[in-house]
Amino acid sequence: MATPHNNTDTPQFTVWVDADACPRQLRDILEIAALRRRVTMRFVANSYMRLENSPYLHFHQVAEGADKADDFIVEHAAAGDLAISGDIPLAARLVEKDVMVIDTHGEQLDSASIGERLAMRNLMDSLRSGGMDVGGPRELDRTGVQQFANALDRYLTRRGK
Is 32 helix (H, G, I), strand (E, B) or coil? Predict the structure, then answer.
C-alpha cells in the first residue's frame, strides 16, 4: 500500500527576499505564497518592515549601508534556497552558492543565465558612468507582476510546496 505524500518528505528550503528594493505588489504575493504553501520566507532590509504574523514569515533588519542586506543574505542562504532580488551582483553571488534567484520581473537567474546578465549590467553601468543616458531598469507593470507570480508558483510547485 502506498503511503500518502507528506510535506516532511520534501527537502526544506528558505526563500530569501532582498526586501529594500522589493516592490509592494511582489511582497504581497510572497506573503500569500508563504502562508498558503507553508514556506519559510526571510525578508532582509535596512529599514523596518511589517509582515503578517506567521511562523513562515521572518524579518531581519540589518545596519544601514551599501550591501549590508546583500551580505546578510549571501552569508545565510544555503544551496537549494531561493532568493528574490533584482540586484544582479547579489544574484551572481548567490548563484555561486547554488541558490536559485528570481528577479522582480519573474526571470529565473541561474548558472546558465547569470553571466550574460552580469556582463550586461556592468556594460550599462560603464556607459552611465561615462555620461551616457541609457535609462534605468524597466518599470514593473501588470505583466511583470504576473510573470513574477508565475515564476514563483512554478518554483514552489517543483519543490513540492
Answer: helix
* DSSP strand pairing (40-45 vs 57-61): parallel
Which cell numbers hold the place of 69? Answer: 542586506
Does the pTM surpass 0.70? The reply is yes
Scanning 38-141, the segments in alpha helix (DSSP H) are 68-76, 88-96, 114-129
| Strand ranges for the chain from DSSP E | 14-18, 40-45, 57-61, 82-84, 100-102, 108-109
Backbone angles phi, psi at 16, to 5 degrees: -100, 130
Q: Which residue has the cell 514563483?
A: 152
Q: What is the pLDDT of residues 61-112, one digit of tens each?
A: 999 988 999 999 999 999 999 999 989 899 999 999 999 999 999 999 987 7
| 76 and 97 Cβ atoms separated by less than 8 Å | no
- Residue in this structure with the C-alpha cell 500569500, named with its chain if needed: 32
The candidate with the shortest Cα–Cα distance to 115, out of 91, 134, 97, 80, is 91
